[in-house]
Design goal:
alpha/beta, seven-stranded parallel beta sheet, five-stranded antiparallel beta sheet, binds alpha-D-glucopyranose
Length: 442
C-alpha cells in the first residue's frame, strides 16, 4: 500500500513539485511510525574526523575557525584503534534506547562507511581503514535496536557542490545546472549505497536548508528510500518530505502539534567529541528533559561524541548508564506510553498507558509530602511508586456532593519512596482518564 502511494506520488511529482507545501499525508505513514512512537529514546552518534582536534563538526572550516587543509589533516589522526561496536551496542542497550542514529556522512563529506563514490571515506583516507557503520548496525540489530543513518545532503568537500565556506560559493545552481545535476547523481548514489548496504530503519537527513525540495529532488529521494524499504522512517529535514519533526536543542514548553517529533540534544555543548568541552549535562538534567519530551508526546535523541580512537568518553558512558538504571526501574511509565494529560492538572510531567486507564505522574528531585492533582473525574483504584513497595495513600479534598466538579486529590508521597532523580507515581484508574477542564463554580 505504502509503496503504491509512493509510486503514485513519484509519477505525479512534476505537478506536485509546483505546490508550495506538497507534504506527506500523516495518515498514510501512521503504521510504520508505531515503533518510533513507542521507542521514546534514541542515541545519536556524531562520529567523525573532527574528534581528532576536537573542533566543530564541519562547521569549523565553514566558519573559518580552521583552514580547510588543516581540517582535512585530521584524516591522518582518525584511527578507530579501540573501536568496539559490540561494546557500543551494549551501552546503548543498557541506556534503554530503542534506536540509534550514526553519522554516515557529515557536511564535511567524509563517508564513515565504504563508499564507492570517490575516495573521501574513513576506509580509504584514514588509518582506521574500516567502515564504522556496518559492524555497529550488525551489533545493534542483534540486540533488537533499530538502526538510523544520519546523512548530510550538504557536502562542502565535493567540488560539484555549490557552497563551500560561509562567504564563498563556487557557483550558482541556476548558472551551471549540469554541474549541480552531477552532484545530485553523486549524493543520490550514496543514498542508494547506504540503502543497499545497511537498509536503515530510519534516515536522518541534515542540511536541507541550503536548497529547495525541487533542487534536492526531495520527492525522488523519498521514493528511492521507500522503494527499497517501505517501512523506513525519514526525519523532517527533507524539505517537506520527511515523516516527523526534529526540534534541535530547543525544548518545547507547550505540546508541539506534530504527530511525531524528536528532540535532538547534545550531552554537553557539542555534537562531536571536543576535549575542551566539559559542560556535561548531569543524569538528573538528561532524565528530566527526557521525561519532559515523552510527556509532551515526543522522543529524545540524545547525542554522544566518540573519540578518534573509537572510545566513548567516560562522562558520556556515565550519563547513559544512569539513564539506563532509571529506565530499568521506571521504564513502564515511558516506553509504549502516550503523552500525558493537559497542563494544569498536575504540576509536573505525566504520561498515560495506551488505554489511558493508568496515569503516571513524574515527581522531580526531592519533592515529597502531599502532592495535588486537580480535575480528575475518575475513581483511583490504586496508587504505587515504581520500583518501591511503599503503600501510597491519598485523600479527596473539597468534593461537593451536588457539584459535578471533581475534588482535589492529595497523594501522600513519603520521602523514603523517592527515586534518586525522578520518582514515578502510578495511578490505576477505574476507567479511561476523564478530566474536568472547567472554571470551578463560575
Ligand atoms: C545541525 C548541524 C549539524 C548537526 C545537526 C544535528 O543541523 O548543522 O552539525 O550534526 O544539527 O542535529
Amino acid at each position: 500500500m505504502l509503496q503504491r502511494i509512493c509510486v503514485l506520488a513519484f509519477i505525479s511529482s512534476v505537478s506536485l513539485l509546483a505546490l508550495a507545501q506538497p507534504k506527506i499525508d500523516p495518515k498514510s505513514i501512521a503504521p510504520k511510525m508505531q515503533w518510533f512512537g513507542d521507542a521514546k529514546l534514541g542515541i545519536f552518534i556524531h562520529a567523525g574526523i573532527y574528534s581528532v582536534n576536537g573542533v566543530d563538526e564541519s562547521w569549523s572550516f565553514y566558519n573559518k575557525k580552521i583552514s580547510y587543509p588543516d581540517y582535512m589533516k585530521q584524516l591522518k589522526g582518525f584511527t578507530l584503534q579501540k573501536y568496539d561496536a559490540a561494546a557500543w551496542a551494549d551501552l546503548i542497550k543498557e541506556s534503554g534506547a530503542r534506536y540509534a542514529v550514526i553519522t554516515t556522512k557529515h557536511h564535511d563529506g567524509v563517508a564513515m562507511y565504504d563508499t564507492k563514490q570517490g575516495n573521501l571515506s574513513i576506509v580509504k583516507a584514514t588509518p582506521a581503514k574500516r567502515d564504522m557503520v556496518k559492524p555497529l548496525f550488525e551489533e545493534l540489530r542483534k540486540r533488537d535496536i533499530k538502526c538510523g543513518a544520519y546523512f548530510s545532503l550538504i557536502d562542502w568537500s565535493d567540488s560539484r557542490y555549490p557552497g563551500f565556506r560561509k562567504d564563498s560559493s563556487r557557483y550558482d545552481v541556476h548558472d551551471d545546472f549540469d554541474r549541480w545535476n552531477q552532484f545530485r547523481g553523486f549524493f543520490q548514489s550514496q543514498i542508494k549505497e547506504i540503502s543497499a548496504q545497511f537498509n536503515p530503519d530510519l534516515w536522518w537527513f541534515d542540511g536541507d536548508w541550503e536548497h529547495s525540495a525541487e533542487e534536492w529532488e526531495a520527492e525522488k529521494v523519498r521514493y528511492l528510500i521507500l522503494s527499497k524499504n517501505p517501512n523506513s522512517i525519514i526525519n523532517g529535514r527533507l524539505q517537506g518530505y520527511g515523516d516527523y519533526a526534529t526540534p534541535e536543542q530547543n525544548f518545547p514548553v507547550s505540546r508541539p502539534p506534530a504527530n511525531w517529533w524528536e528532540l535532538c540534544m547534545t550531552i554537553n555543548d557539542n555534537w562531536g567529541y571536543q576535549h575542551k568541552d566539559h559542560n556535561w549535562k548531569t543524569p538528573y538534567e538528561v532524565i528530566t528533559i527526557f521525561v519532559d519530551a515523552v510527556a509532551n508526546g515526543g522522543n529524545l535523541l540524545l547525542d554522544i561524541g566518540p573519540k578518534e580512537d573509537g572510545t566513548i568518553p567516560e562522562e558520556q558512558v556515565n550519563v547513559l548508564k544512569e539513564l539506563g538504571a532509571w529506565n530499568a526501574k521506571n521504564g513502564e511509565a515511558i516506553f509504549n506510553t502516550v503523552g500525558g494529560i493537559a497542563q494544569g492538572h498536575f504540576y509536573g510531567p505525566t504520561t498515560l498507558s495506551k488505554d489511558s486507564t493508568t496515569l503516571y505522574l513524574f515527581v522531580h528531585g526531592k519533592t515529597s509530602g502531599q502532592l495535588m492533582l486537580k480535575g480528575l473525574d475518575n475513581k483511583i483504584n490504586e496508587i504505587s511508586v515504581l520500583g518501591s513497595n511503599e503503600k501510597i495513600t491519598h485523600k479527596v479534598v473539597g468534593k461537593i456532593s451536588w457539584s459535578p466538579v471533581p475534588g482535589l486529590v492529595y497523594i501522600n508521597l513519603p520521602e523514603s519512596a523517592l527515586d534518586k532523580y525522578v520518582t514515578v507515581l502510578k495511578l490505576k484508574l477505574d476507567k479511561p482518564v476523564k478530566l474536568y477542564r472547567g472554571q470551578g463554580g463560575l
